[in-house]
Design a protein that fits this description.
Mean pLDDT of chain A: 89
Number of strands of chain A: 8
Largest sheet of chain B: 5 strands, parallel
CATH superfamily of the largest domain in chain B: Aspartate/ornithine carbamoyltransferase
Structural class of chain B: alpha/beta
Strand content of chain A: 15-25%
CATH class of the largest domain in chain B: Alpha Beta
Number of domains of chain B: 2
Distance between the termini of chain A: 30 Å
Helix content of chain A: 25-40%
Order of helices and strands of chain A: EHEHEEHEEEHE
Low-confidence stretches of chain A: none
Mean pLDDT of chain B: 89
CATH topology of one domain in chain A: Rossmann fold
Helix content of chain B: 25-40%
Shape of chain B: globular
Strand order of the largest sheet of chain B: 7-6-5-8-9
CATH topology of the largest domain in chain B: Rossmann fold
Oligomer: heterodimer
Number of helices of chain A: 4
Chain lengths: 200, 324
Amino acid sequence: MFPNASFPARDSPYWVPMPDTPVTMLDARSLQRTLRRMADEIVELNNGTDDLLIVGIQRRGVQLAARIVSMIAERENVTVPRGALDITLYRDDLQTVGPRPVVGPTDLPWDIDGKHVVIVDDVLYTGRTIRAALDELADFGRPRRIGLAVLIDRGGRELPIHADVVGRTLTVPPGARIDVLVSELDGRDAVVQVAPGASA
Amino acid sequence: MTPGPLGKDLLGLEPLSGDQIRLILDTAEPFKEISERAIKKVPTLRGATIVNLFFEPSTRTRVSFEFAEKRLSADPVNVAASSSSVTKGETLVDTARNLEAMRIDMVVMRHGASGAAQFLAERIESNVINAGDGTHEHPTQGLLDLLTLRDRFTTLEGLKVCLCGDVLHSRVARSNIWGLTKMGAQVAVCGPRSLLPNAIDEMGVTIFDHIEDAIGWADALNVLRLQLERMTAGYIPSLREYNRVFGVTRERLDRAGRDVLILHPGPMNRGVEIDSDVADGPFSVILDQVTNGVAIRMAVLYLLSGGRPELAEAAKGGGAGGAR
């Protein structure tokens, strides 16, 4: 609508402080509905469940992938194989971040050659995580096709990467963070927007 | 360069806290999987140059470090002292400074003198990893022993581990004692008094004079190698007598009537400190130790390799936060 519009800088007189409390963008029920639609779209994209392999990215992507797999199982009566990918060792900023980020487990017990792999992640932002995931998958084999499904697309891409299946597109003020909370790790399901420096 | 969670160097387990040791063990877990892949390589340490500087012979440790370095995409260079300028009388510091002048990032060093790793670490800017210094410490071996024990027993808290044999000459024993006690395990030593260091009990360990008592007490035995090359004086009457009195044999383990896990840092003197049917038996995890060694060394390399956040600050104008 206003392509040149920008948020006022912190030192400008028009700067409005963002609330410190996290704003809920998606509650548990709408998150459930969104995931259900994404599960359907993934099956549609693949034209069925043959050769489909769902790979969640550590951390929240793994839990989202598990739910999508169980939703596909409800609808299609097929349990699609599922894996987990930790991209820490493939990050392009390892030389510049410190201290060393925690490495999570990668668990891909399937042969991915010729498969239709769908990467599942919570938030798509700069695209660098997905770049790392593509590199890591290439070290495991050569899938027939790799798709990308994200719960939240918040824009701000730094690489030419786009998602095939998007749960919700959000416009986020600069500096703010989108946190996806899943009950397995966070005790509740929600998507919240957090002001800079605050914690969800 | 900002020091990582372990500081600049890994010189031993004595200076580390229990949390730091736990961090290394936890970090090693995901690295195990990389060695099981078809393409056993991740790009993490791309561009890092690492010198493996070995002043003492070694197969296992050197190859293990080299695999760990290559699987992290670092560029390792092996320098064996026997074929280098060291034989022409060059000092340790000169050797290291010359290597550093070629812009290296890390040095993995094994040396016959206790304290050599610390001596070097204080004089060069590269990260130094101690791969065994004299009879002082061999931290990565200690860590892989801890990882192997934790794999089997799920926790080290309260675990009873006995180090058997030549404790006097064993840097592995010292690293084990520091690591195990910091992780809450109970440690004992067992061996002829001539091969136990003075005041070993001050390190908080129990002493067994009879191997049968040790086997009856322990959940796991870490059988140390009789370091014949370091024995200049008459520490033991004969190898045969040593085996008869202190050897870990099938018969002795059977008599204990319960399962005792067997570790050995290698290389083994079969038929001396350990019998072949024990080393190759069902309770031996000696080869698991070797497998875990690569993962532990990958974890240590990863944790020590310095992040340079000041570069990121400069590039982004101060913006931190995780990229997505």
